[in-house]
Design goal:
The complex is a heterotrimer of chains A (about 550), B (about 325) and C (about 270). Chain A is α/β, with parallel strands linked by helices and about 550 residues long. Chain A is built from 21 helices and 20 strands. Chain A folds into 2 domains: about 260 residues, Rossmann fold (3-Layer(aba) Sandwich), CATH 3.40.50; about 250 residues, P-loop containing nucleotide triphosphate hydrolases (Rossmann fold). In chain A, the strands form 4 sheets. Chain A has a 6-stranded mixed beta sheet with strand order 6-7-8-3-9-10, sandwiched between helices. A 6-stranded mixed beta sheet of chain A has the order 16-17-18-13-19-20, with helices on both faces. In chain A, strand 9 and strand 10 form a beta hairpin. In chain A, helix 6 packs parallel to helix 7 and helix 14 packs across helix 15. Chain B has a domain of about 180 residues: MetI-like (MetI-like fold, Orthogonal Bundle). Chain B contains 13 helices and no strands. Chain B has about 325 residues and is mostly helical. Chain B starts with a helix and ends with a helix. Chain B is globular and about 85 Å long. Chain C has one domain: Orthogonal Bundle (MetI-like fold). In chain C, about 50% of the residues are buried. Chain C is about 70% helix and about 0% strand. Classes of the chains: A alpha/beta (about 550), B mainly alpha (about 325), C mainly alpha (about 270). Chains in contact: A-B, A-C, B-C. Chains A and B meet through helix 2 and helix 4 of A and helix 9 and helix 10 of B.
């Protein structure tokens, strides 16, 4: 990596000092004002090392990563501090200076490679573009290097994949092509911005392993940004924990995950651990799904194939699977939104009508649903009082004071006060919104609540709170859950029995302890072994122990 | 060019032809709802029943509506647009020269307005939220609110009457020298340009902005490309289809604007011909001209859609 | 609450002039200094203390005719807009919520109507129908309702697939509740701003028809017709025709400013409070 003109490269590659980043926001009906996104953050990164930046949404981690390239997204401005890269303050270099370092000294890998590649150009042209622009290599050399990188990143058909267009390549592969693109101009450092977050869990592990190998073999340094501590523990030498734009804790990877010093870090580390005693299955299930097959497009696409599961009173059935496994379709079939083509659904000993329109009000009351995106699950023009109160009116005919009293009770059950009754959804935080949705479901006094990925859009600590709440409510109200998720850690925390779904079929089904006890079928094994554990060296172990290739790589 | 594209393009064209056929039914039906009939309107209220009956026989009005429709359609397809009731002249002959005049006017208006709108749209994106941008959105707001005749008569008042640069009445005739012809259409072409310009600018701006805000433009910036290269290599190939779309939609809009502008400047084109014959209740002419306008309009919309199909890399390079 | 100081200048101007035109239209008979058809002076007299805007091609007071013209123009435009809006939005909402064959049939029919430029289709129909008030309102309202239909169907279809609507359907709510309580409150802001645009379009459409001699017929006065009456003066340097044309422009711009402001104001509101 000899660069003309530089004599001795400093050992410290990147040195950010007292960085302060502000952005101008335009609140409706108010004068625009500046808010601080990053406040007095300093970090150093040595040549060839990987620093993980971790935090919840709004922690300022991506903003810090991009500041190393002098880039501010959406009106962010660096208003204080220094960013010293290769011994010079890049903030003083001006526009020309930024352009020289971007794509040459520092490269960027985005969360969604599918959006970050230009749909109009072939992959190879985009991969070598920066190398050619900065005169790092001739076209032939750059393409040769790109093919070598494709091979290193275990992309299929490395000779020819560059001839394809972005839409012709899967998401996991695109993410690796983007890594190759970043490495192609032989930069000193790469900023990885949540590179595996948008991927399925079994694909994530492949991409993660590929990125890790590539970092090791090329000796490039990296800022690895993610919200998942277990992921960053696999690749980073050091970890920096951020919250609300401020530094919380910074230390070696082992220290952060084994001996966290700050309460916040401790909470992040222990977030997945909820002890949940599995309940013995009852004798009689109240809801049975028997041999259900469902299709989209008038029988063309089979999305559910011969699915059979039972749900017992007051217990939780977790349905796990990756995107496209049919787990949400199962919920739609049970609720009647997608009438099954074959099979039946029995509820309290009688057959449920297939179509939503044919079900009685009482049947509808018994089955309630909570959604992944609480934002769009509530009418933005209704107050919390109306949202929770409507099922009370609708099912029980409650009016006026009686209704308000019950709404207040429900708000207390979800650990929110009476003061929220007149708020609109936009005035609530993400966790509060999801709680209101839970209260709305509870208001109907259902026997079953279907929870569709209810925690996956939330930050880990908030999700943790929601899971605890759901468990408490199950104790108090005796409600059963059908819990749909892609996250096995969540499953372990909440399930009594588990159904693993793969391509529309239930591949493994039983009590939690049975399902999670070996021997496993190939897919369950892949799924279980792909969930990152907060353990240094887990990634290598997991890759070695795998029996089946993931589908989406 | 691979087959899925050809299929889609063929489908789009077939759909357009089908639509045109349906439009012809609608136009024909639209002129059948009058109280009384064509014979009545030719001869007036004072006509004797005998002369009415004779004329009806002569015009074939005693046949059922669908037979008259197919007779008309058959004529249209073979280039026979019928005879004008008011002047007893062949419609196709009368239209010939006028259609050419109208296209000549619309062509020059498009030649001026399209590049101007695209350049101004690019400027608005380049200086987003700045003065130029604000000015453009202000003008766009105004232009959607201004009637064509306001713009037209303002131009006449200032440039024809006060300054006497161009004629206020656009007389053209066969064999007119090109220079004189251009001078004659200067004001109507300007009026048409002003009618569509701001709208086209604003839509171009939106199309480019949409592309500029995409993640791949950020990727390009983070590779160190200059602002110009980012636009040339990454934004432009993706913006071209939406821009063609914008242009075609506005040309369709321009075709409608032509009607009023021709009346203002007494320009011997299709629009004026149509308006004249609407007042005379000359149904065959109105049907023919209405169909031609609709055909042009549908044609431009087809081109817009085909441009979008061809420019889409997902369709050009299927999996 | 609505604070008058917070209203941007443009919207304030828009509100002021819209109100002014409305008042002129409603109270025309009391405000106008002269009668509608009253010949008070010579042909095309310039503006004077007596005739603020001068006189027209027959020697009638132009200001009085503008005020009466406001009445005719706004009256027809309001009724046509009301028709296009109620027709378009009811059919559009129903199509989005009901779906199925009704949606397909309506949408294809609207596609067909929109394949012909509105003005051209209007001219075709007016070539056989008499230009009475009722015909004009019906033709304008029905032709324009296609645009309202497209918008309301699109807006309602977007909202209809949101989870909160699904939640209401799962609860067992009827169609009425879903349309009026779940969808409508969320569709209001684009629809209200569209209302303004449709009104402007109706004013411009009517004026164009009258200008072409196919809209409001004399002796009634509307702005487009007044442009037609006075257009011959232009070549003599008499700007009388520009005044009603400017009135149309001023009304359209004012309403546009108000509609723009309403759209901005309501879309920036995430919740239900101001």
């Amino acid at each position: 990596m000899a660069k003309a003109g530089t004599k001795e490269k400093p050992e410290i590659l990147l040195d950010i000092r007292n960085l302060r980043i502000e952005a101008r926001v335009f609140p409706p009906g108010e004068a625009p004002r500046d808010i601080t996104i990053v406040d007095d953050v300093s970090l150093t990164l040595k040549r060839g090392k990987v620093l993980g930046l971790i935090g919840e949404s709004g922690a300022g981690k991506s903003t810090i990563g991009l500041s190393s390239m002098g880039y501010g997204r959406g009106g962010c401005r660096i208003t204080g501090g220094e960013v010293i890269l290769n011994g010079r303050d890049v903030l003083k270099g001006g526009k020309q200076g930024f352009r020289k370092l971007r794509g040459r000294e520092v490269c960027y890998v985005a969360q969604s490679a599918a959006a970050a590649f230009n749909p109009a150009h072939r992959l190879m042209d985009q991969v070598v573009e920066a190398a050619l622009l900065h005169g790092v290599a001739s076209r032939a050399e750059a393409e040769k290097r790109a093919i070598a990188l494709f091979k290193k990143l275990s992309l299929p058909d490395p000779q020819n994949i560059g001839k394809r267009f972005p839409h012709q390549v899967s998401g996991g592969q695109l993410q690796r092509v983007m890594t190759a693109m970043a490495l192609c101009s032989e930069p000193d450092m790469i900023v990885f911005d949540e590179p595996t977050t948008a991927l399925d869990v079994t694909t994530q592990i492949d991409v993660l392993a590929a990125i890790k190998d590539a970092i090791r073999d090329t000796g490039v340094a990296a800022l690895y940004i993610t919200h998942d501590l277990a992921v960053v523990a696999q690749v980073a030498d050091e970890i920096m924990v951020l919250r609300h734009g401020k530094l919380v804790e910074w230390g070696g990877t082992r220290q952060i995950i084994k001996e966290p010093r700050q309460d916040y870090t401790r909470a992040l580390v222990s977030v997945h651990q909820i002890e949940h005693q599995e309940k013995k299955p009852g004798t009689k299930p109240f809801l049975s799904v028997k041999n259900v097959t469902a299709t989209y497009g008038g029988g063309v696409v089979k999305v559910l194939k011969n699915v059979t599961v039972d749900i017992f009173p007051g217990q939780t059935l977790a349905v796990v699977g990756e995107s496209g496994s049919g787990k949400s379709t199962l919920a739609r079939a049970i609720t009647g939104l997608l009438p099954p083509m074959e099979g039946s659904i029995t509820f309290s000993g009688r057959k449920l009508a297939n179509r939503l329109a044919d079900r009685t009000k009482e049947d509808l009351r018994q089955l309630q649903m909570i959604y992944q995106m609480a934002d769009v699950a509530m009418n933005p023009r209704q107050t919390v009082g109306t949202i929770i109160g409507r099922p009370l009116e609708f099912y029980f005919g409650m009016r006026g004071k009686e209704r308000d009293r019950r709404v207040t009770e429900l708000l207390e059950k979800i650990e929110m006060g009476k003061g929220f009754i007149d708020r609109y959804p936009a005035e609530l935080s993400g966790g509060q919104k999801q709680r209101v949705c839970i209260a709305r479901a509870l208001a109907a006094k259902p026997t079953l609540i279907i929870c569709d990925e209810v925690t996956s859009a939330l930050d880990p600590l908030v999700a943790h709170g929601i899971l605890n709440l759901l468990l408490d409510l199950q104790q108090e109200e005796g409600v059963a859950y059908l819990f749909i998720t892609h996250d096995l850690a969540t499953v372990k925390s909440i399930a009594d029995s588990i159904a693993v779904m793969y391509r529309g079929e239930v591949v493994r089904y039983g009590a939690k302890s049975e399902v999670l006890r070996p021997p496993f079928d190939a897919y369950t094994d892949l799924l279980l072994s792909s969930v990152p554990e907060m353990e240094i060296g887990w990634l290598e172990k997991a890759i070695k122990g795998r029996r089946m290739e993931s589908a989406g790589n | 060019m691979s087959s899925p594209i050809l299929t889609l393009v063929a489908q789009r064209i077939a759909l357009g032809l089908l639509l045109l056929l349906a439009v012809s039914v609608l136009i024909f039906a639209g002129t059948q709802i009058l109280p009384g009939d064509v014979a009545q309107s030719i001869l007036g209220q004072s006509a004797t029943p005998a002369s009415l009956a004779n004329l009806r026989e002569e015009l074939g009005l005693n046949d059922p509506a669908y037979i008259r429709y197919f007779r008309w359609l058959g004529g249209v397809v073979t280039g026979d647009l019928g005879t004008a009731l008011s002047s007893r002249q062949d419609i196709a002959t009368s239209i010939g020269g006028r259609l050419w005049n109208t296209l000549f006017l619309a062509f020059w208006a498009a030649v001026v307005s399209v590049p101007l709108a695209i350049i101004l749209g690019l400027l608005a994106v380049r200086y987003r939220n700045g003065f130029v941008d604000k000015l453009i959105s202000g003008l766009a707001l105004a232009s959607t609110s201004l009637p064509e005749f306001f713009i037209g008569y303002l131009l006449v008042y200032f440039f024809a009457v006060k300054m006497q640069w161009f004629p206020g009445i656009s007389t053209v005739y066969d064999g007119m020298p090109f220079g004189e012809r251009m001078a004659a259409i200067a004001l109507p072409a300007t009026a048409l340009t002003l009618v569509v310009l701001a709208h086209m600018m604003r839509m171009t701006r939106a199309a480019i902005l949409n592309v500029m805000q995409s993640a791949y433009v950020e990727t390009a910036e983070l590779k160190g490309l200059s602002a110009f290269d980012v636009i040339r290599k990454h934004a432009f190939p993706n913006a071209i289809a939406p821009i063609i779309n914008v242009v075609m939609l506005n040309l369709a809009f321009l075709i409608v604007g032509v009607v009023v502008v021709e009346v203002i400047f007494v320009y011997p084109g299709m629009g004026q011909y149509l308006v004249d014959h609407v007042s005379k209740r000359d149904v065959p002419v109105v049907q023919a001209v209405g169909l031609i306008f609709a055909a042009v309009y549908i044609g431009l919309n087809i081109i817009a859609d085909i441009a979008a199909i061809i420019a889409n890399p997902r369709l050009r390079h299927p999996k | 609450m609505l604070d008058i100081k917070r209203i941007p200048l443009g919207a304030l101007l828009g509100l002021f002039f819209t109100a002014l035109f409305l008042i002129a239209a409603i109270f025309a008979q009391w405000i106008a200094p002269f009668g509608l058809g009253e010949i008070v002076g010579n042909v095309w007299e310039p503006a004077s203390a007596q005739y603020w805007l001068g006189t027209d091609n027959l020697g009638r007071d132009l200001l009085s005719r503008i005020i009466y013209g406001a009445q005719t123009t706004i009256f027809i435009a309001v009724l046509a807009t009301a028709l296009s809006f109620s027709l378009g939005s009811i059919l559009g909402f129903t199509a989005a919520v009901v779906g199925g064959w009704f949606d397909t049939l309506m949408s294809r029919f609207v596609d067909l109507l929109m394949a012909i430029p509105t003005l051209i289709f209007g001219l075709v129909v007016l070539s056989v129908l008499p230009s009475t008030l009722v015909t004009l309102i019906l033709v304008m309202g029905i032709l324009d309702s296609t645009r309202v239909y497209r918008l309301s169907r699109a807006v309602a279809a977007d909202i209809n697939v949101m989870d909160f609507v699904e939640a209401a359907k799962l609860r067992g709510e009827g169609r009425g509740w879903i349309i009026f309580r779940e969808i409508l409150p969320n569709a209001l802001s684009p629809l209200v701003s569209e209302l303004g645009l449709r009104f402007i379009y109706a004013v411009l459409f009517l004026s164009a028809l009258s200008f072409l001699g196919l809209g409001v017929q004399p002796p009634a006065a509307d702005w487009g017709g007044m442009v037609k009456e006075n257009k011959d003066g232009i070549v003599f340097g008499i700007p009388a025709a520009l005044i009603p044309a400017a009135a149309i422009a001023a009304l359209a711009i004012s309403v546009n400013l108000v509609a723009d402001w309403i759209l901005n104001r309501t879309t920036s509101l995430k919740g239900g409070r101001a």
